[in-house]
Amino acid sequence: MTSSPTDLAIEAAGLTKRFGSTVALAGVDLDVRRGAILGLLGPNGAGKTTVVKVLATSTRADAGSALICGYDVASQAHQVRQLIGVTGQYASVDGDLTGLQNLVMVGRLLGLSRSLARQRARRLLDEAGLESAADKAAKTYSGGMRRRLDLAVSLINRPAVVFLDEPTTGLDPVRRSDTWRMIKALAEAGSTVLLTTQYLEEADHLADEIVVIDSGQVAARGTPNELKKRLGRQTLDVQLLDEADADRAVTVVSHALGHEPAVDRPARRLTAAVDDGEAMAQVVRALDEAGIKVNELSLRLPSLDDVFLALVGHRPTTGTASVNSTYSEGDQ
Amino acid sequence: MSTPETAAPARAEPTTRPTARQGLAQCAALSWRGIVKIRRNPLGLTDVILGPAIFLVLFGYVFGGAIAGDTGRYLQYVFPGILVMMTLFATMGVGVALNSDLSAGIFDRFRSLPVLRIAPLVGAIGSDVVRQLVSLTALICFGLLLGVRFQAGPASILAGCALALMFALSVSWAWILLGLTIEDTQAVQGLAAIIILPAAFASNMFAPPETMPSWMQVIVSWNPVTHLVDAVRGLLMGGPVAEPLLDTTLWMGAFVLVFAPLSLRSYNRREG
């Protein structure tokens, strides 16, 4: 990274955290420029939430250091808390208070005058599409409404750095795009955003830079374009009829595409990143000319699994699952 | 197009810690939650309004004849005791409310905010003040209806109510600690009740200690509730006030000094 330290809103080095015998973070480094959106991408249990909790001062790392706008999260937590907004995976709102009251209360806690708190609360409710529910108790909100209220609450202090832990998990597609709009507006207005997600599409859509995390470690990082170049726009799956053809098929496909596909022998499957449908035709021709029988051939958008396969060299591991876990037929 | 509310302008340098004024404002903002909830659900006040009436009638007319030979005279004696009992009973909700707030997630939000660490706990106690005031008002009104004759001026009566209220708030720190350390909300409620009942009854609240066996008299004389009842009785019905007032103040200080730091420590140890 070429930025000088003063340009960084988030600087974390060597973050380590254990819960009992489980290693949640095994030395995570992160640098985020001011005003950028960083997408922290990883499967469940990868350590994304723990990263957010350490950076947002709600839990302490066992080792390593982290600065938010130059303030240390461990020794200057009070300063850090004045600069950040946090939205967790579960909405932290008071169900007995109305949407407006939730916002005003937090605004008051942050030292805003009553009139300024109300004024900002009204506008945030509008931006979150909650204006008609402003005076209803938050416990009557749907899950998606609560999540958007939670996001609005975390923005009432106009935070310099916003942490969003899986802000759209469980939201329907329409609500997801509403939330995306709010997040984009946030960065355009100058806030730095760290967003965790399980969705490649979300990171791709929002993030200036993506960090892929797995088993508490950074597995890859780059701009969405850089990662996609390594990944291709689409993923070609070739399932062979006969496992014995695998080596030959790899050679043929490598030749046709100009790069080597990933192989899953037990599933008799080759997976390769491709840029367009034309590549599929080339592969079909090449395999046919070589006399290799194909059971199934498909083209699809890359999944998070593919990101891992392409960038990390193995599929996402959860908990104690084996790194070389086989590729089940139901995988998409 | 107007700037979105999400705009992040240039900001002042962050401060290193909240000032005393900010801290007080934060405690007040968090206590305000309690008032909002009462406005939203006024029926939640039923227990603190009807409770005083029920206990006055029950104690006055069930035990009055047996204990004092005359229900009217007993009401005079027992009224300050019931006032103390009602404020103590009303505190039990504090731990329960805190416990359910902790599981509901709103405290995760408080934890991420630059507020005084203890403010959310003070707010949990402060939220209860309105309930207590309603309870005290109801009790005084029902007392007057039933013919209780106060032997002191309004200022003295107010002082008695204020003392009982402050004692209740200081005892609430113990429920805060329970609410923080015990996972199960039901258990918090049950444990608080099991502590408060004997603490209230093993006092001079309902009967003169002279009628009790000597070992019970020892317990009663050490029970902080006894000193509080003495002080409130003195303030409402006339009688010595200075010594029980001093003892009560010392006990209140002790409750806060012991349970507030323990609560804060327990709160800080919980990781969100």
Question: Can you lay out the helices and strands and say which pair or pack?
Answer:
The complex is a heterodimer of chains A (332) and B (272).
Chain A: E1 8-19, E2 22-33, E3 37-41, H1 48-55, E4 63-68, E5 71-72, H2 77-83, E6 84-87, H3 99-109, H4 114-127, H5 143-154, E7 161-165, H6 173-188, E8 192-197, H7 200-206, E9 209-214, E10 217-222, H8 224-231, E11 234-240, H9 246-257, E12 262-264, E13 269-274, H10 277-289, E14 294-300, H11 304-311
Chain B: H1 20-40, H2 46-68, H3 71-104, H4 106-111, H5 119-126, H6 129-145, H7 154-181, H8 185-201, H9 214-222, H10 224-237, H11 242-269
Helix pairs in contact in B: 1-5, 2-3, 2-6, 3-6, 3-7, 3-8, 3-10, 5-7, 7-10, 7-11, 10-11
Features:
heterodimer; A: 332 residues; alpha/beta; six-stranded mixed β-sheet; 14 strands; 26% strand; disordered C terminus; B: 272 residues; mainly alpha; 75% helix
Q: What's a concise summary of this model?
A:
With 332 residues, chain A is an alpha/beta fold.
Describe the overall structure:
The complex is a heterodimer of chains A (332) and B (272). By secondary structure, chain A is an alpha/beta fold. Chain A has eleven helices and 14 strands. Chain A has helices spanning 48-55, 77-83, 99-109, 114-127, 143-154, 173-188, 200-206, 224-231, 246-257, 277-289, 304-311, and strands at residues 8-19, 22-33, 37-41, 63-68, 71-72, 84-87, 161-165, 192-197, 209-214, 217-222, 234-240, 262-264, 269-274, 294-300. In chain A, the strands form three sheets. A six-stranded mixed sheet of chain A has the order 6-7-8-3-9-10, with helices on both faces. A four-stranded antiparallel sheet of chain A has the order 2-1-4-5, with helices on one face. In chain A, helix 9 (246-257) packs across helix 10 (277-289). Chain A is elongated and about 75 Å long. Mean pLDDT of chain A is 85; it is low at 317-332. Chain B is mainly alpha-helical and 272 residues long. Chain B starts with 19 loop residues before the first helix and ends with a helix. Chain A binds chain B through residues 53, 56-59, 71, 76, 78-84, 86, 88, 90-97, 101, 105-106, 108-111, 120, 123-124, 126-127, 137, 150, 153-155, 158-160, 182, 185-186, 189-191, and chain B through 3-9, 11, 14-18, 22, 25-26, 29-30, 32-33, 36-37, 40-41, 101, 104-115, 119, 271-272.
